[in-house]
Specification:
Blueprint lengths: L9 E6 L6 H14 L3 E5 H6 L7 E2 L1 H7 L2 E6 L1 H11 L6 E5 L14 H9 L3 E15 L2 E8 L2 E5 L7 E7 L2 E8 L1 E5 L7 H4 L11 E7 L9 E4 L4 E7 L3 E5 L3 E5 L4 E16 L4 H8 L13
Parallel strand pairs: 1-2, 1-4, 2-3, 4-5
Antiparallel strand pairs: 6-7, 6-17, 8-11, 8-15, 9-10, 9-14, 11-12, 12-13, 14-17, 15-16
InterPro entries: ATP-NAD_kinase_N, ATP-NAD_kinase_PpnK-typ_C, NAD/diacylglycerol_kinase_sf, NADK
Main location: cytoplasm
Function: Involved in the regulation of the intracellular balance of NAD and NADP, and is a key enzyme in the biosynthesis of NADP. Catalyzes specifically the phosphorylation on 2'-hydroxyl of the adenosine moiety of NAD to yield NADP.
Length: 299
């Protein structure tokens, strides 16, 4: 194990709760980090779920102010939650996959310690991702503010009819839309809900924001990619049980005439990937490109 680089002295561990058997993996990572001379802290919710009182706990703000990087052990949902909180502090994130897909938590449990060793020693690929910020205005006053790594989604309730939306971009009227809702996605989110709704894949380095209608009434209403300098305003014209959510994790209930202002956040997040990491390899693996069912060696 190499000496601790000055850039990574204090490391936060963020762990998905209620995951069977995760304690053993956490202890492996803790032992590895302590042996390497790193100071380790738990994120507050992680500390509450793990019975390891010898490890100090910090809030997300404390981690942002005191820690040099954060290791996230979980799935992409765990990563999304902490990434939004740490974005203002420029704390880089390392993801160990304890979930299913793992687009952002990309280090497998098997062989994770040698990979961590190389990343913390400075042998890694750093990748910055943009975020969206949204403000919900009612009668001109902000009632909810949120950040999104993946997407901001305006959608109808399960038992409600279509929602009618007006969409403006940079003070220019775009369209009135009748649909089940609208997804406003970052390039990171283009592999998430936006993709399942028929949106395009955007490379993470592209400066774009994609709008994807959810089951639009007019079949000609198609996804569109906008410059990430755009400001998007969505106004609720009509509908019941409408919500806006940020990464499917924070919500606000909406009423007719509410307006959602969405733009690129001034904050960004940095992922530290293993050396040799490739976005295209990730797509091929996670989306099962060029894979065929087994035919016992026959084509």
């Amino acid at each position: 194990m190499p000496a601790t680089p000055a850039m990574y002295n204090t490391i936060a561990l963020v762990v998905r709760p209620n995951t069977a058997g995760i304690e053993d993996s956490v202890r492996d990572v803790l032992g590895f980090l302590r042996e390497g001379g790193y100071s380790v802290v738990f994120e507050t919710d992680t500390a509450a779920h793990l019975n390891m009182p010898e490890i100090p706990a910090m809030s997300a703000q404390g981690i942002g102010e005191k820690c040099d990087c954060a290791i996230v052990m979980g799935g992409d949902g765990t990563m999304l939650g902490i990434a939004r909180q740490l974005a203002p502090f420029e704390v880089p994130l390392i993801g160990i996959n304890q979930g299913r897909l793992g687009f952002m938590t990309d280090i497998p449990l098997e062989g994770m310690l040698p990979v961590l060793s190389r990343i913390l020693a400075g042998t890694h690929k750093a990748e910055r991702r943009t975020l969206l910020e949204g403000r919900v205005l009612r009668d001109g006053k902000a009632i909810h503010v949120g950040l999104a790594v993946n997407d901001v989604v305006v959608a109808r309730g399960a038992g409600a009819g279509m929602v009618e939306l007006r969409v403006d971009v940079d003070d220019h009227f775009m369209y009135n839309q009748r649909s089940d809702g609208l997804i406003v996605s970052t390039p990171t989110g283009s592999t998430a809900y936006a993709l399942s709704a028929g949106g395009p894949l955007l490379h993470p380095t592209l400066g774009g924001i994609v709008l994807v209608p959810i089951a639009p009434h007019a079949l000609s209403n198609r996804p569109i990619v906008l410059p990430d300098s755009s400001e998007i305003v969505i106004e609720i014209n009509r509908g019941r049980d409408i919500t806006v959510n940020f990464d499917m994790q924070t919500f606000a209930s909406l009423m007719p005439q509410d307006r959602i202002h969405i733009r690129r956040s001034p904050h960004a997040i940095t992922f530290l990937h293993p050396e040799g990491w490739s976005y295209y390899n990730t797509l091929r693996e996670k989306l099962h490109w060029n894979e065929y069912p087994s035919t016992d060696g026959k084509i």
